[in-house]
Amino acid sequence: MPLVPGQIQVHYAFTDRFADVGQLEAFAALLSDEERARRERFRFERDRHLYLVAHALVRDRLSALTGLPPRALQFESGEHGKPELVSPGAATGVRFNLSHTHGLVACAVGLHDDLGVDVEHRDRTVELEQVARSVYSPAELEGLLALEGRARRVRFFQLWTLKEAYIKAVGQGLSMPLKQITLSVGGPEISLDLSQSDLGDGADWCLTLAEPGADHQLAVAVRSRSAGPPQLREWTGEVS
């Protein structure tokens, strides 16, 4: 369906659901020559498979939304590596962001507004407290350490994906002052406090959490005061 201003679509796919050789060959046909070459440089098949599904998803969904053939889509990277769609003709105004983790890829798409998406597998090996002390604000850390067990792990990845989605939307990479960004999670709404930084007004952002599957956390950040809740749609691999 076509995009309208203020609408965000998040297309996601579970990578282990794609094993048919013919389908994977159809995915590969969507990629550019450069993408196919980059895919082959991955050492492990699991990484080649993840890359293939992720980039086929991006090209197929952007093709459906812009009316351009998948292989005609061109991308360029900003100063900090954030990819953007070069906008010839019908593609003008379309913004996107891609994220992937073990077993899951996701692409957020919208019009004009800066946006970012992040996905994580909640059972990945990570030293929660050590990482939190290095990147979370004092208020975030205090709230996290007040929880125990599974609740602490869930909250860690909620904060982690929200912060990553916001960073990706801004497009400045990890040069941002992470401890000066405070997210409040757990109530009816997610709030972003940027008062300890020079990053602007947190009220300019819409932030959303979702769980596409039992093991995965997803977050979306959009620079808009009026964006509606993202529409999550599972991609089945039926290319346009």
Shape: globular
Strand sequence of the main sheet, in spatial order?
A: 4-5-1-11
Number of strands: 11
Q: Would you tell me the overall average pLDDT?
A: 92
Strand content: 15-25%
From the structure above, extract its key features.
240 residues, alpha+beta, Ribosomal Protein L22, Chain A, four-stranded mixed β-sheet, 6 helices
Give a description of the structure.
By secondary structure, the protein is an alpha+beta fold. The chain has one domain (9-234): 4'-phosphopantetheinyl transferase domain (Ribosomal Protein L22, Chain A, Alpha-Beta Complex), CATH 3.90.470.20. Helices cover 32% and strands 24% of the residues. The chain contains six helices and eleven strands. The chain has helices spanning 21-30, 33-40, 45-66, 128-135, 138-145, 149-170; strands at 9-14, 75-77, 83-85, 94-101, 104-111, 115-121, 182-184, 191-193, 206-210, 216-222, 231-234. The strands form four sheets. Strands 4-5-1-11 form a four-stranded mixed β-sheet, with helices on one face. It has a three-stranded antiparallel β-sheet with strand order 6-10-9, with helices on one face. Strands 2-3 form a two-stranded antiparallel sheet. Strand 7 and strand 8 (191-193) form a beta hairpin. Helix 1 crosses helix 3 and helix 2 packs antiparallel against helix 3 (45-66). The longest helix has 22 residues, at 45-66. It is globular, with a radius of gyration of 18 Å. The two termini are 12 Å apart. The model has no long low-confidence stretch (mean pLDDT 92).
